[in-house]
Amino acid sequence: MKIVYLYHSIAIKGGLERVLSDKMNYLADNTNFEIYFITSDQGNQEFSYPLSPKIHHTDLGGIKYFSIYKKKYPLRLWLIHKFEKDYRKRLTNRLKEIKPDIIISNTTLNIALIANLKINAKKILESHLAKDAIIKAGKNHKNINIIEYMLKSIFDKYTYRIINKYDQMVVLTEEDNKAWLNICNTTIIANPLTYYPKIFIKNKKNNTIICAARLYQEKGIDLLIKAWSTIHNKYPSWHIDIYGNGPLYKELSIMSEEYGVDNSIHFFPPTNNIYDKYKEADFMVLSSRYEGFGLVIAEAMSCGTPCVAFNCPSGPNEIITDGFDGLIAQNSDINDLAEKMEWMITHEHERKEMGIKARESAKRYTKEHIMQQWIELFNQITILQPKTK
Hints:
Layout: E1 2-7, H1 15-30, E2 34-39, E3 56-59, H2 75-98, E4 102-106, H3 111-115, E5 122-126, H4 146-163, E6 168-171, H5 174-179, E7 186-188, E8 208-212, H6 221-229, E9 239-243, H7 249-258, E10 265-268, H8 274-280, E11 283-286, H9 295-302, E12 307-310, H10 316-319, E13 326-329, H11 334-346, H12 348-361, H13 367-381
Parallel strand pairs: 1-2, 1-4, 2-3, 4-5, 5-6, 6-7, 8-9, 8-11, 9-10, 11-12, 12-13
């Protein structure tokens, strides 16, 4: 079976990039499938995560989608049209050479372009975002004017129609699956852990809270700063280590100073040894406004590190069992988040017990378990199935 994965590039250290490389590597090294990886923007950049030599990589070259958003309108619109025309032509030619059985794309790419490709292959769409991050006129957009709402509603109907052209849509959580009521074929497959630590040693107390997140608005680091500012004076020996980068670094650094927590909140760039950092931390906090899944929670749990997370859409409340292997705070409620963090700080014995349970819970996200679900899907989808839900 020939399987083609499509993506812009694996040139930055991000969650989607890591998950994608992990899945391709597993299939290339542990199955008889032929794995092909086609990028548009990789160019001469090194892969941020290593790829198996068994993976056949092709960069279409010269597309440079990333450069579009540096331009102003109307030049940007012309470049989008030009790049997509070039991309469609080069991609179609490469796919005709490969003759794949399955093509896998995701919602960060041009889903209409790929859905309409005249290629005799099954098409799978992976959604790494919650539905509310894709559908424009949903419940989170109540304050837009009527004209804008109508335009976004038209776009949403078009999006539904395009997604239904795919043979399968894969979502990450049960909550997100229920949200896509208008999609015919959906299935739930969570993201896999990069690895599950075999050795579990967590006796040392470091008074460290960890947060692994890109510095973007949806990750809610501003909410974490506000929550921490309400309790940090009571626990001067404790600190928060945030691993991630993004456009809000300067803004968040200034904010931590304004809230008087700059001495206890430390920003670090992404690291290749994040699992070591999870192991060293006493607990983790995820303050996201929304998530596609929340893989960092499962990663921390696999290291015996319990987590506190907002009950945001979607993922955290399906990974964490509140009060058993972690704590769930009301979505975007900084007082509740602070209360849950304080509980973790002041209940050392219970926190350690949660960590033991969290590590056991995380086993359901091991690569072997998750990738078996993908293999079963590949085998099923190559058999013609009616689109019903």
